[in-house]
Write a structure and sequence with these properties.
single chain, about 450 residues, about 5% strand
Length: about 450
């Protein structure tokens, strides 16, 4: 009776047809502006617009837009390392799990194949005349001496680098540098880890918008003022973005709610199957938080293939902020090649003190370059990644819910209010257009 009375009141309203458009329009507009907000979170990767010096809004370099995640890649990646990756273990532990002894053998074999050419390159660069005049038989003795000494030198060098990896590589800085130099990588990481949550936010927003649209329709019935259309559209836009983001991460800890279940879902038609009523529990938890086991697989794969890789660790070690310390450590091993009687007699006496000192620096530079070639080998990096994948996956699964949410939460938290306010502004504009295009013509 009450429903019939309300419906009769609606039908008799002079703007009944215009009012009926409020729920579907609100649902559609909400769906569109949430899609737009999510896109603006990640794209464009690079700033698009007009650069203006000292532009004061949103940390942008001018009038235009750059995705929040790529724009703040350094800060967001720093938060992820501090809040999550640092809790998974130390760089020393990960490097040890890569089995550096096997790495040393691989590097030795690769360098050994080109060792003669490497020695020629070093000597021709430092003293072309001297090296050109040395008899080939003497050169062969130098080559042989280097080949014999190389395995032991590389084994002790890699062992030493492994022992000092924490001193030579700042894991936080390594990952931040990687993210800042490849901002698309960070965007892809968030999309792989959180694609289901992003889709959830997008699609649930339409349902939330529809519910708000029905509420707004009855508000207009009680308060038939046209200003309510854009005003409440702005409120719904604001609330929709906030609710959708909130539902992804909250509650952080699972809460179990008892209810009476009358049916179960099945895969085929009619999609439900009746059963005897019984009390069961519903697990209420943020959508992302529920997927910890699944996300652990995805995130661990990203970490071991793109972030904490052998190539990245060694790049940071050889060329990063602590490269000078790495060079000093390498000297103690590589200079052993110069201590053999053949090399010492041939080079030190012929070159002189100054040239011999420059030769030492050249040996370090060329050795670093030669060592990095096999370390960039995809097969080697893939094999090392497989060594630590399980370690990362299991430890991500073991994170507490508060720690786990920080894999995705920083992307939304960084400019969450911007996205929410954007929803309100978009809602207001859509409500105003709705008023102009639908309500005003209906009055005439």
């Amino acid at each position: 009776m009450v429903v019939t009375s309300i419906w009769q009141t609606l039908v008799e309203h002079p703007e009944f047809l215009a009012m009926l458009t409020i729920p579907p329009v609100t649902a559609f507009v909400t769906w569109v502006h949430v899609w737009m907000a999510l896109k603006m979170l990640f794209y464009p990767i690079k700033f698009r617009g007009i650069r203006i010096s000292g532009f004061p809004f949103f940390g942008l370099p001018g009038l235009g837009w750059q995705g929040i995640v790529p724009r703040k890649a350094g800060k967001i990646s720093g938060v992820i390392v501090d809040q999550t990756l640092s809790k998974l273990g130390s760089l020393d532990e990960f490097f040890q799990a890569m089995e550096p002894e096997q790495m040393a053998v691989f590097i030795t074999d690769a360098v050994d194949e080109n060792l003669d050419a490497l020695i020629d390159e070093i000597m021709l660069e430092r003293s072309e005349t001297l090296w050109g005049n040395i008899p080939y038989a003497l050169k062969r003795r130098i080559y042989t001496q280097a080949h014999e000494a190389l395995p032991e030198i590389m084994q002790s060098l890699v062992t030493d680098l492994t022992y000092h990896v924490e001193d030579l590589v700042d894991m936080r800085q390594m990952i931040v540098n990687k993210m800042e130099s490849d901002r698309r990588l960070m965007v892809n990481m968030f999309l792989k880890v959180g694609q289901k949550e992003i889709n959830f936010i997008w699609h649930i927003s339409a349902l939330i918008g529809l519910v708000f649209g029905v509420i707004q329709m009855f508000i207009f019935l009680i308060v038939p003022q046209h200003w309510t259309v854009p005003f409440f559209a702005a409120i719904w836009g604001f609330l929709t973005n906030w609710i959708a983001i909130w539902m992804v991460f909250n509650p952080v800890e699972p809460r179990f709610i008892r209810y009476i279940q009358f049916f179960t879902r099945v895969s085929g038609f009619p999609f439900i199957k009746l059963q005897l009523p019984h009390i069961t529990r519903f697990r209420w938890q943020g959508g992302f938080m529920k997927r910890q086991e699944e996300v652990s697989e995805v995130f661990a794969e990203i970490v071991v293939t793109d972030l904490v890789t052998l190539e990245n660790i060694m790049n940071e070690m050889m060329y990063g902020e602590k490269a000078a310390q790495t060079r000093e450590l390498m000297k103690t091993h590589l200079y052993q090649l110069l201590e053999s009687p053949v090399v010492k007699t041939t080079l030190r006496m012929s070159l002189g003190r100054r040239e011999f000192g420059q030769l030492k620096n050249t040996i370090i530079d060329k050795s670093i370059t030669a060592t990095m070639v096999p370390l960039r080998d995809p097969e080697l990096n893939e094999s090392r990644a497989s060594k630590i994948f399980g370690l990362f996956r299991d430890r991500i699964r073991a994170l507490s819910p508060d720690e786990f949410q920080n894999l995705l939460r920083p992307a939304f938290r960084e400019d969450e209010m911007t996205l929410i306010v954007l929803g309100g502004l978009t809602g207001f504009l859509a409500g105003w257009l709705h008023l102009i295009l639908v309500f005003f013509p209906a009055m005439q």
